[in-house]
From TrEMBL:
Pfam families: ANF_receptor
Compartment(s): Membrane
Upper lineage: Eukaryota, Metazoa, Ecdysozoa, Arthropoda, Hexapoda
Example GO molecular function: G protein-coupled GABA receptor activity
The name this protein goes by in its record: Receptor ligand binding region domain-containing protein
Ranges that cross the membrane: 212-238
Length: 243
């Protein structure tokens, strides 16, 4: 499915408007836009949302300005949104270099106590590899992409940005911090019809009762049937000697 979406070109913000004719899709762009309206999407946050000075001595905005200036010098027309591939991931790459540098610094200090050096590392040296892994796993700092930390599996722990398509544009609804288990909600969501759609099948337990007149009638008939049955049983027992 993902491969086919890539071939069609359905991976950009306006994915629902791309290659409709080439793929034989009979819906119009407006119909596709209406179908996509209101859907939610999540992605890892690439940029630090606070104007705080990071470990590099720059804020995220200062890093962005320096990056844009360097791209302009390289001939990219970023004023007309002509960005190179991987531009959005630049903060992650920048912070990744800082992560490696900090992890190596920690590893170097630990190895010195054991009279070892990083220069002695080989791919068969499990001791040094474990030290590098432990140092990387404990690395945490404020970078241009946000708070940089790693899970025990080595995955980057980052803020998750939640967006919703409103009037054909993606609007930010909030952010989720997996480390603190904290959700920052901006209350910007809009729902078609003004009602939140269901995310599951709702089961309601309803007690259904029989009307009182019908209940009394059925009880009376049942009691009469029981009395008749008892009468017949007694009659059969009383006259059992007769054939």
């Amino acid at each position: 499915m993902f491969c086919q979406s890539y071939r069609i070109g359905w991976y950009e913000d306006n994915w629902y408007e791309v290659n409709l004719d080439n793929e034989g899709i009979t819906c119009t762009v407006e119909q596709m836009r209406m179908a996509a309206e209101g859907h939610l999407t999540t992605e890892a946050l690439m940029w630090n949302q606070n104007n705080q000075t990071t470990i590099s001595g720059m804020t995220a905005e200062e890093f962005r300005l320096r990056l844009n200036h360097a791209l302009i010098e390289e001939g990219y027309d970023i004023n007309h949104d002509r960005y190179p591939e991987g531009y959005q991931e630049a903060p992650l790459a920048y912070d990744a270099v800082w992560s490696v540098a900090l992890a190596f610094n920690k590893t170097t200090e630990r190895l010195k106590r054991r009279n070892k050096s990083l220069k002695e590392f080989t791919y068969n040296d499990k001791d040094i590899a474990d030290e590098i892994y432990a140092a990387m796993n404990s690395t945490q700092f404020l970078g241009v992409s946000g708070v940089v930390a790693f899970s025990s599996q080595g995955d980057r722990i980052a803020l998750t940005q939640i967006e919703q398509m409103i009037n054909g544009r993606y609007e930010k609804l909030g952010y989720y911090d997996t480390q603190l288990d904290n959700l920052t909600w901006l209350n910007m969501e809009q729902w078609i019809g003004g009602k939140v759609p269901q995310d599951r099948t709702i089961v309601r337990r309803v007690l259904r009762t029989v009307s009182l007149p019908l209940f009394v009638c059925m009880c009376t008939i049942s009691c009469c049937g029981i009395l008749v049955a008892l009468t017949l049983i007694i009659f059969n027992i009383w006259h059992k000697h007769r054939r």
